[in-house]
Every structure is written in C-alpha cells, then in structure tokens.
C-alpha cells in the first residue's frame, strides 16, 4: 500500500530510480528547470542518470566543469584534502592549498606590467566575487558609481543583481535596487541599431558611454566600469577586438577602475586562461568563479597587489571563502589544464565546432548567427526579416538535442540563443556526435 509522508509517496515496491524520481517535486520551482534528469554520476563530458541513460553534457553545469565531470586528478585532490582538514577559516588559520593558490593563480593575471605583482581574494560564488570587486573599487577610489553594460549578468545577490541587465526576471519585483549604477550599450553587432558591423557596434557602445558622462554621471564620480569580456547570459556575444582596449583607455583617462567579470569566460573557456588576454587588456580587477575549482564552490578576485591591499583588515571577508577542499580542487584544476593542454584543445575543438555549426546552419534561414570563441559558442534564432527573436526555436532545438542525448542551454535576453559549453577536455568523437545531433535537431524543428 502506498503511504505519503510530507507529501512524498512511500511505497516498498518502488525501484530505487522511481524513489529518486518521486522526490523531484520537493525541489522548489524557483530552480527553473532545463531537464528532469536525476543524475547518478558524471565522467568526462558525460553524465549518467539513475535510470542508466547517458547524455553528452555540453552545458558543463553552466560553464563550470571545464576539466570534465569528476576528473580523477581533481577528485583525488578533493579526497586527499578532505581527509586532512575541510574548513580552516581564513581569519583563523592559513592552510596549504590556499597558500599555494595565492602564489600560483596571480601569476596568470592578464598583462601584468613588468615588476607588477598581482594578488588574490577568495570567496565562494560568482556573485560574491562581483560584490568583492565592486566593494574594492568603491573602497579604493572613494567614488560612488559603477557603470555596467546592457545585457550583462553578474549574479543574484542584491548588489550583483543591481548590476545585471540581461533579463528582467533577474531583477524584477526586487526594487529598490542599489543606487548609482548606470548602463552603457554592449557592442552586439547583430542587434546594433546603427548597423550590424563590429565597427558600428563599437562606436555605438562607446558613444553610449560618453553620453552617460555627458548626461548622467561625472566620470570622476565613477569607481568602476564592470564588463564581461564575452557577454554570457546576455547571449554569448564576442565584442569587437577594440572594445576592451577602448574601455581601458577611457578608464585610465578618468581614474576609473576596469573590472573584467570573467566568471563565465575565464579558466580556459575561450581558449586562453582569461578572455581578456585575447586583446591583451589589463583589467584592474578580474573576477573568477565557475571553472576555477572544477565544480567545488570557489570564486575570487585578482588585482594588482597594491590595489587589493587597499582593502584593510575586516573591510571584506566571509566564513567560507577560500575553503581548503575547494582550493585543493583549484590547484588540481590548474594542473590538469596545463598537463592536458586544455587551452589548445579548447581552441581546436572550438574551431571545429564553430566551422561545422556554420556549415550545418547555412541553409536554415531562422539561424540569425553562429558565433563564439573557444568553447563558448552560440546559435541565435531570429526571423530573417526584422530579426524578431525566436525563443520558441531555441527551446525546440534544445529539446530536439536532448532527445538525441545532447544537453544544451539557452541564453540571451529573450531566450533566443542556444549556448554550447563543452568541457575543455572534449574530444573529436564527442564533437562529431554533437554536430550530428545538432544537425538532426535543426532539421527536426524546421528552423
Ligand atoms: N558573472 C557572470 C559573468 C556569470 O555568468 C555568473 C553566473 O552565471 C555570475 C557572475 C554569478 O555567478 P554565481 O551564479 O556563481 O553567483
């Protein structure tokens, strides 16, 4: 006989898989869902469900599992550290993986000038690191305002959400938000109102920034420009090459700090350790999270040492930041990226995916654009006349790929973009099977 306990069916005849499936509706609906899968394990680019089905995971847990699921070297480092000490709070103790990470990670800070040193502050989530970056900028400059870019996503805490403009669902019904935040246009060539070229989009964006200085806020009151080097949630938009260097120049001219939010674009995702490196841009503060510890909660900011050290004792902090097990996972992640040549692989597989995606979408008029860099790739769906966004097609495409055992996500303000985020370890065979699944999916949805 079936009983219910707190609304859950308890039935001795249920299989183990059925038991887990029955528990799914306990999870609150605030977690908008892409799939109903209950996962048993993950290995490399693959996940396996409690029912024994295997899926090629080109979501990477939203760009997190860059070294693949449960990489043996990362898993071993986690187990080894967990057996020694799990939590050695940063105000109380130094721990070895944390010290090593503070020594190693800042060496990757982009475009360090000769003689400059970089330093690291660790926290847990992307949003928390965004908070740290913006707090540091305000603290160091004693200026009140921040300029972010339209379409940007920076997280869900009150501060990070106030800086986010990629979709109303992230900020709607939460007013009042943080004051003194202004938005300039992100250069998005496909949807640029003054013409669909990189040059026009760049000019439009920079003119929008200058307009803010002329109409809304004096530059000398701006602490920071906060920008994603590649727009993430807002649609996987790669800006023109001149964009970040132009922001660097404007920031220098006005004594503003440039903050690169590399939460999604960092840790090898674009084929360089940090996307800012593609244009040799030196951010004042770089924000990282997601891929840095292969799935353990770890985030942080890097900055030149003299800037980061402006944060006096107690000016910022947190109980869990720089957790010992997470730091051990981060060190193993850095090792795996180097030992397995994952930056090269990201570029190589990214190029293969991009060229094949362009080939298979060529005869599909509602594919408005295929774009991306490294393994941060996207297909945007829109009506050929007028570019009306087609989130329905993106959704159907993701569903058709799912039916072919390929996991994908959407992004873009209207959900009209499909993003393809393979782990950096993905191989030729997986890329080829993803391409054929996507080719079939395109035909199946009649795009
Ligand atoms: N910044 C960017 C660019 C992101 O893509 C995200 C998450 O997707 C965040 C910040 C927030 O990170 P988290 O969800 O870990 O708080």
Write up this protein.
The protein is α/β, with parallel strands linked by helices and 447 residues long. The protein folds into two domains: 32-63 and 341-445, Aspartate Aminotransferase, domain 1, CATH 3.90.1150; 78-339, Type I PLP-dependent aspartate aminotransferase-like (Major domain) (Aspartate Aminotransferase, domain 2), CATH 3.40.640. It has helices spanning 16-22, 60-63, 72-84, 96-104, 126-141, 158-162, 198-215, 243-254, 305-308, 324-339, 342-361, 391-403, 428-445, and strands spanning 3-5, 8-10, 39-43, 46-49, 54-57, 118-123, 145-149, 181-184, 222-227, 257-261, 285-288, 299-304, 367-373, 376-381, 406-407, 409-411, 417-420. Helix 8 links the parallel strand 9 and strand 10 (257-261). It is globular. Pyridoxal-5'-phosphate is lined by residues 62, 125-127, 130, 153-155, 228, 232-233, 261, 263-264, 289. Pyridoxal-5'-phosphate binds at residues 62, 125-127, 130, 153-155, 228, 232-233, 261, 263-264, 289.
Question: Mind sketching the topology for me?
Answer:
Layout: E1 3-5, E2 8-10, H1 16-22, E3 39-43, E4 46-49, E5 54-57, H2 60-63, H3 72-84, H4 96-104, E6 118-123, H5 126-141, E7 145-149, H6 158-162, E8 181-184, H7 198-215, E9 222-227, H8 243-254, E10 257-261, E11 285-288, E12 299-304, H9 305-308, H10 324-339, H11 342-361, E13 367-373, E14 376-381, H12 391-403, E15 406-407, E16 409-411, E17 417-420, H13 428-445
Parallel strand pairs: 5-15, 7-8, 7-9, 9-10, 10-11
Antiparallel strand pairs: 1-2, 3-4, 4-5, 6-12, 11-12, 13-14, 14-17, 16-17
Helix pairs in contact: 3-10, 4-10, 11-13, 12-13
The protein binds pyridoxal-5'-phosphate.
